[in-house]
Design a protein that fits this description.
- The complex is a heterotrimer of chains A (382), B (593) and C (371).
- Chain A has two domains: 245 residues, no CATH class; 101 residues, abc type-2 transporter like fold (3-Layer(aba) Sandwich), CATH 3.40.1710.
- Chain A is an alpha/beta fold and 382 residues long.
- Chain A is elongated and about 95 Å long.
- A four-stranded mixed β-sheet of chain A has the order 2-1-3-4, sandwiched between helices.
- Among the domains of chain B are: 217 residues, P-loop containing nucleotide triphosphate hydrolases (Rossmann fold, 3-Layer(aba) Sandwich), CATH 3.40.50.300; 81 residues, Alpha-Beta Plaits, CATH 3.30.70; 75 residues, no CATH class.
- Chain B is 35% helix and 25% strand.
- Chain B has a six-stranded mixed β-sheet with strand order 5-6-7-3-8-9, sandwiched between helices. A six-stranded mixed β-sheet of chain B has the order 19-20-21-16-22-23, sandwiched between helices. In chain B, strands 11-12-10-13 form a four-stranded antiparallel β-sheet, sandwiched between helices.
- Chain C has two domains: 226 residues; 103 residues, abc type-2 transporter like domain (abc type-2 transporter like fold, 3-Layer(aba) Sandwich).
- Chain C has a four-stranded mixed β-sheet with strand order 2-1-3-4.
- The longest helix of chain C is centred in the middle third of the chain and has 32 residues.
- The relative contact order of chain C is 0.11.
- The chains are: A alpha/beta (382), B alpha/beta (593), C alpha/beta (371).
């Protein structure tokens, strides 16, 4: 093939891809359901998660029972009231408080026994009894942690004021990096972005290609001189752009509406996101080669991409705490690598040792998926 | 490069075989097919649904690989080099290959780009294409908003943007009304005469065969014949008759004629019965049949088709006795003398969708025991009317009495007397034949031993016994149709609604079907049919033709034909009549606007 | 009587249609099972294998004693020992460890001399929840150690140790919290899928028209759709409850009547929502999308994983419309707190209200769709 004919070949190919991309863009703009999945769904999900999901407890209702009122007990309760974690409710006796706990009016009971004040003054045991509702173990543990914290702070203050000279034999000092206020929203929202990108990349792409099969347009495309690679590229480009727009929307919302810090660079974010989006699109395209109707494609996409991205990516649940065989599964879920990257880029910054290995994993996924797609897709009806 | 001995435009297929796996084992879609097509002609690929037409088209377009055998298109094998073939053919799949979210112009642009048509040549190509297909005024309209006929025209235009020497069209006329169908064929004819293209068109409408230069009959995956329409007609020349039976009901006479020795085919045609013989010997009508007048009839393609099929299938025609299926009605008929009574009364019927009036002041009556047809172009309001009659849609105004019950007040009672068979033979595809029958009979309130007896009778009558425990979704098309009919008749309804009951069905099965319908009409069941299919319309006692929600003409097929008899058209067919009535109507509408 | 028979046939047909088809059989069985297992194992707030590093500048015995308590804990996994402050940042930044324990050189000395001896815990806060739980673990170990040291030296512990008792879930196991929730979640998914897609499928296949021309009334048809959903929902939920008790050893302390009354009412409202979606959509795909759009918010806003009490007020108000919210309460109270019928009356009332409203609305849309 001489150079002019190969140039003509490539320009023809470029023309065909351009026509396909243009067609796809028109369809996206005119079909409200694609736009809904790509832009409205992320918006709603971010709102629900941003406002609805918080694993931190604040103003936890807690029953307080004082067997006897002393300056010490009053002081401790005051410091409890001042913390943002609790809203203490006084109860006359422990039986009332237990009733309230059973009715779920309060999440726990703080019971300052008869000898509380004296215990403090005389350096003896000051029995504090705490009863929590253990059903929601997470909240229970948080309540315990916060109570401990408040208690220690109060002791410390007393010690400083000179009322208590003998401190603990050993005390714990805590420094929490990256998220000193420990806001769960700050780590949930970056993870959510991975879920949203999966939704656009895999679910939406699988659905639109299945639709082409259903409506018979795929058959019509197949009898033109378009090659299968060109059809794939023609799908890839517009949905890539759509996915990146969804990403941009999500980042803007998390930055300005939810005030999640973005400590890494936008460039890193953009590069790693495009890498992940490529794998997500790869999954969508792969699903659509197998499933030729929208119903099946949608189900496969939800079960194999959306749910894993939700549960097994480390987005909500810590991967290291899962049983080994489930941890092994998380290694084949691209979203788990992306969630790690996102949490670092948002909260910690561009940390090469985190970004690079995880990006390499994503790139390997992308290469693998597209190699597989090219192998299995043929320009045939069967 | 094309070999010198394979002239451009020629398609050859040599010993093609193609099978598909199915739940019931391998299905042979094409069985050892060999043929070649002439350049610059229209070849019709004729056969009922499931004959293998689409498989053959897809093989030619390089979308499927044959199990064995070889195809050459302009000397190139599409199985080996699909891209080169696909660049030089136009192909229109059966489902519209159109993007409904894109406008007419955008669809054309897309296919032009994909086929590599240079930008500067496009305008010159578009203008004649749009003019030919009549789409010029609608360039900006979204394809999804076009009517069925216009979509098909746009599909043709899109497959022609690169001026392919070969055009493959897979059932371009299915679901299209007769007017649009006629226009589509005009376009195809023009294409061949003006550009010398080679067209390969598949269809299940036998009457379209006559419009082709060459015909290839495909039946059960085999080629049953190949030749010009003229050659096919000559085969049966002198063997066709039109039988008249003055004073007798043709519905009674026709089945009796069909079992006479030497008769290949009988079919109702308005006020006569067409009889086709297997030799030049005229039928010998026994005395018992009463007075039968036989006139020789000019041969037509369908006669040849039927006699060829009969040679393959060799099934002995049987006399149909409806008694076991309809014990109730045969009793009634013996006891109660015939009294004039309407099965359906429609008076001033109106239906609005928003501001659009789909049915406008419609009035007609269907008598007891009558086969009544509802015809009209796409969008004429016949489906809306039909759905209102069946109680699926509420009328906006007017009176609607079905089986003596006001549908608007006593819908449930009215429905007890209705049998309904939808176009797609809607059955629960996951349920077996028997389970479907159990379900529908229970839905109509049958139970106990009566139910068992009815179901057994249906299974026997429709010869469904061997399929009793087969899921209805994998039944062959003909049996699916039988099951749908048996479900619709299980409660012995006095009125039967049929929505395009035999479109695409094997002509043999179609005749069998109509024999049953005729027998039902004889025992007093009224039948309402909507159809695009002129052959089905010929079975009707009376029919109405609708346009834009109003009634355009009403009468028996002869009366309708009579309306359009002109010196230019001394012997109009029902389709001719239909087309000319509609075009007259749209002309007057145009004048008013 | 006649009518009852017709409805029974409708129910029978519905079951055959669902169970004879391999694909829909799979949809009913495989995803719930997989989800139950994966969710139950994966969705846990308990931490295991916490990777940590030690930066010990103290040479005394006390620091070693304390650190032995960490390395001896099954929850902690020592990844490395460091000697310089500069080594801390890379370890945490690169996610090698979640925690660095820093013990200063004067720790043992201070402990002996009753000066405050400090241990510094440096935590990765990127996953705030994990950090918070981890901190709790660290505190427990440190507190236990200090108490032991004090007791060993014969001095009364100068602080008031907080005596914590966690009711209902004494070991604070996440699984006890998550698995009962999954019962509700999966029941909702199954009932929604069964109903939301069934009418749409009949529409697509054309059998819906066939059904409508029979003398069956819309009420019959709705009943014919609701009853199979009920049976399937009940059977699946029972299966999941059995698995929860047998495999995951979740205590079932309350009365079965209370549980099944709740289940009954919950399925009622799930079916109502499913039918409502079903009567509004025309294709299975839209049905799937509608079910999805309902499921995601209702799971998130149910208190399944995060407490409703933590949400902003307007979202808390919104959760009042969510049937899953009430069922979560019923499930956890019956499973863990041993609740009986009487204590759950408000939840039952809410579910009954949501169920009847959605069913009535479904019937309304259903009939309107016929016009």
């Amino acid at each position: 093939m001489n150079s002019s004919s190969s140039r003509a070949f490539f320009s023809a190919r470029l023309n065909r891809i351009r026509a396909l991309v243009y067609k796809e863009s028109l369809q996206i703009v005119r079909d409200p359901s694609s736009l809904a999945i790509a832009l409205v769904l992320p918006f709603v999900l971010l709102l629900i998660f941003g406002y609805g999901v918080s694993l931190d407890a604040s103003h936890v209702p807690i029953a307080v029972v004082q067997d006897s009122r002393t300056p010490a007990s009053e002081g401790f309760i005051a410091s409890l009231r001042n913390s943002r974690w609790f809203s203490p409710k006084p109860y006359a006796n422990i039986h009332d408080a237990i009733g309230a706990l059973k009715r779920q009016d309060v999440e726990g009971i703080l019971w300052l026994r008869e000898n509380f004040g004296r215990g403090i003054e005389s350096f003896h045991n000051a029995p504090i009894h705490v009863i929590v509702d253990g059903v929601d173990d997470n909240t229970a543990r948080l309540v315990e942690g916060y109570l401990n914290n408040t208690w220690q702070t109060w002791l410390h203050l007393r010690a400083q004021r000179g009322r208590l000279s003998s401190p603990l034999p050993a005390e714990l000092q805590v420094r929490i990096w990256f998220n000193p206020d420990n806001r769960s929203r700050d780590f949930l929202i970056p993870g959510l972005i991975a879920v949203i990108m999966t939704l656009i990349g895999a679910l939406l792409t699988a659905l639109v290609i299945a639709r082409e099969w259903e409506r018979g347009t795929m058959e019509a495309l197949f009898v033109t001189p378009v090659s299968i690679g060109e059809i794939l590229v023609g799908k890839f480009i517009p949905y890539f752009i759509l996915g990146m727009s969804g990403m941009a929307l999500s980042v803007l919302m998390s930055r300005f509406l939810f005030e999640v810090p973005l400590r890494g660079s936008v460039i890193t974010l953009a590069l790693t996101s495009s890498l992940f989006l490529t794998t997500a699109l790869g999954m969508g395209l792969l699903i659509s080669t197998a499933a030729k109707n929208q119903f099946v494609a949608g189900q496969i996409a939800i079960v194999f991409t959306f749910l894993p991205a939700f549960i097994l990516s480390g987005f909500i649940f810590d991967i290291h705490s899962m049983p080994p065989f489930i941890q092994a599964i998380t290694h084949i879920i691209p979203a788990s690598y992306f969630v790690t990257i996102l949490q670092s880029v948002f909260l910690a910054g561009d940390i090469p040792k985190v970004i690079i290995p995880n990006s390499v994993a994503l790139a390997l996924f992308a290469v693998f998926l597209f190699a597989l797609i090219l192998r299995v897709s043929r320009k045939r009806i069967e | 490069m094309a070999e010198p001995d394979s002239p451009e435009g020629l398609i050859t297929a040599n010993r093609l075989t193609k099978t598909f796996p199915s739940p019931r084992g391998l299905v042979t879609a094409l069985d050892d097919i060999t043929f070649s097509l002439k350049k610059g002609s229209i070849t019709g690929l004729i056969g009922p649904d499931g004959a293998g037409k689409t498989t053959l088209m897809r093989l030619l377009a390089g979308l499927l690989l044959p199990d064995s055998g070889e195809i050459k298109i302009m000397g190139i094998n599409p199985s080996k080099d699909p891209l080169s073939v696909q660049g030089s053919i136009g192909y229109m799949p059966q489902k519209f290959g159109l993007y409904e979210d894109l406008s007419v112009q955008e669809n054309l642009d897309l296919y032009a780009s994909l086929q590599g048509v240079p930008q500067d040549r496009r305008e010159d190509l578009y203008v004649p294409l749009l003019a030919m297909t009549g789409l010029s005024p609608f360039q900006k309209r979204l394809a999804g908003q076009l009517s069925g006929g216009m979509k098909q025209k746009l599909g043709i235009a899109c497959s022609l943007v690169h001026q392919p020497p070969i055009l493959l069209l897979d059932e371009p006329t299915v679901g299209v009304d007769p007017v649009s169908r006629r226009e589509l064929w005009e376009i195809l004819k023009k294409l061949v005469s003006e550009s010398g293209s080679t067209l390969f068109v598949s269809t299940s409408y036998l009457d379209e065969a006559e419009r082709c230069n060459e015909i290839l009959i495909l039946y059960n995956g085999k080629i049953l014949g190949n030749g010009t329409p003229e050659a096919f007609r000559m085969e049966v020349a002198g063997r066709g008759y039109r039988a008249e039976a003055p004073g007798q009901s043709l519905r009674v006479v026709e089945p009796k004629l069909s079992v006479l020795p030497g008769v290949v085919d009988t079919v109702l045609e308005g006020s006569t019965v067409r009889v086709v013989m297997d030799s030049d010997m005229p039928p010998s009508v026994p005395q018992g049949l009463g007075k039968i007048l036989l006139h020789p009839a000019p041969p037509r393609f369908e006669d040849a088709f039927m006699s060829r099929i009969k040679k393959v299938t060799r099934e002995n025609p049987k006399t149909i006795s409806i008694d076991r299926l309809y014990p109730k009605h045969s009793q009634e008929q013996k006891n109660i003398p015939e009294k004039p009574e309407n099965a359906i009364d429609v008076e001033n019927l109106v239906r609005d969708f928003g501001t659009f009036r789909a049915v406008d002041n419609l009035t007609f009556h269907v008598r007891k025991g009558e086969v009544f047809g509802l015809l009209g172009a796409n969008g004429a309001g016949k489906t809306t009317t039909f759905r209102m009659l069946a109680g699926l849609l509420e009328p906006s105004g007017g009176k609607l009495i079905v089986a003596g019950k006001d549908v608007r007040k006593a819908a449930a009672q009215a429905r007890q007397n209705i049998g309904y068979m939808a176009q797609k033979f809607s059955l629960y595809s996951q349920l077996t034949v028997f389970q479907n029958l159990i379900f529908f009979s229970s839905a109509y309130g049958l139970s106990g031993s009566l139910q068992k007896e009815k179901i057994q009778n249906s299974l026997t009558f429709f010869e469904l016994e061997p399929y009793r425990n087969v899921s209805s979704g994998i039944l062959p098309l003909g049996f699916r149709q039988r099951l749908a009919l048996s479900c619709a008749l299980i409660h012995e309804p006095s009125i039967l609604f049929l929505d395009e009951p035999t479109s695409g069905v094997d002509p043999n099965a179609r005749r069998e079907f109509w024999h049953i319908i005729n027998a039902l009409a004889i025992v007093g069941v009224s039948v309402l049919v909507t159809t695009h299919f002129m052959e089905e319309a010929e079975y009707c006692d009376r029919l109405v033709i609708m346009a834009q929600g109003t009634l355009l003409a009403m009468g028996n097929p002869e009366e309708i034909k009579e309306k359009t008899r002109t010196p230019q058209m001394p012997e109009p067919s029902l389709e001719d009549a239909f087309v000319s009535l509609l075009s007259d109507f749209s002309r007057t509408q145009g004048d008013h606007q | 009587m006649q009518r009852l028979l017709r409805i029974m046939r409708l129910v029978q047909k519905e079951f055959l249609a669902l169970l004879r088809d391999k694909k829909s059989r799979m949809v009913l069985i495989v995803p719930p099972t997989v989800q139950l297992l994966v969710f139950s194992y994966a969705a846990t707030f308990d931490l295991n294998n916490i990777s940590y590093a030690v930066w010990n500048e103290d040479t005394g015995i006390y620091s070693r004693q304390l650190l032995a308590r960490f390395s001896g804990s099954p929850n902690f996994k020592l990844v490395g020992t460091i000697t310089r402050e500069q080594e801390v940042a890379p370890l945490i930044n690169n996610r090698k460890v979640l925690l660095v324990l820093h013990i200063r050189s004067n720790f043992s000395r201070n402990l002996l001399s009753s000066n405050p001896a400090t241990i510094e815990a440096l935590l990765d806060g990127r996953q705030s929840n994990t950090a918070m739980i981890l901190l709790g673990y660290v505190e427990t170990i440190v507190n236990n150690y200090t108490t032991d040291v004090a007791t060993a030296r014969g001095i009364p512990t100068p602080i008031a140790p907080i005596a914590l008792r966690a009711w209902y879930n004494p070991n604070l196991k996440s699984r006890w919290f998550i698995v009962p929730g999954i019962v509700g979640l999966l029941t909702l998914v199954v009932t929604l899928l069964v109903t939301a897609l069934s009418v749409a499928r009949e529409r697509e296949e054309g059998t819906f028209d066939q059904l409508l021309v029979t003398p069956l009334t819309p009420l019959d048809i709705i009943l014919g759709k609701v009853l199979p959903g009920f049976v399937i929902g009940m059977v699946e939920a029972t299966g999941i409850i059995v698995l929860a008790v047998l495999i995951f050893h979740i205590p079932l302390r309350g009365s079965l009547e209370a549980l099944y009354l709740g289940l009954f009412l919950f399925i009622l409202s799930g079916l109502g929502v499913g039918l409502m979606i079903s009567s509004l959509v025309s294709t299975q795909q839209q049905g799937l999308l509608g079910a999805f759009l309902f499921l995601v918010p209702s799971i998130i806003l149910s208190g399944f994983a995060s407490p409703i009490a933590n949400m902003p007020t307007f979202i808390q108000d919104l959760t009042l419309l969510n049937p899953l919210r009430y069922f979560m309460v019923i499930l956890r109270e019956v499973f863990l707190q041993g609740a009986g019928v009487s204590i759950l009356l408000p939840e039952y009332a809410a579910l009954l209200g949501i169920g009847t409203t959605t069913l009535l609305l479904a019937g309304h849309f259903f009939r309107r769709g016929l016009r």
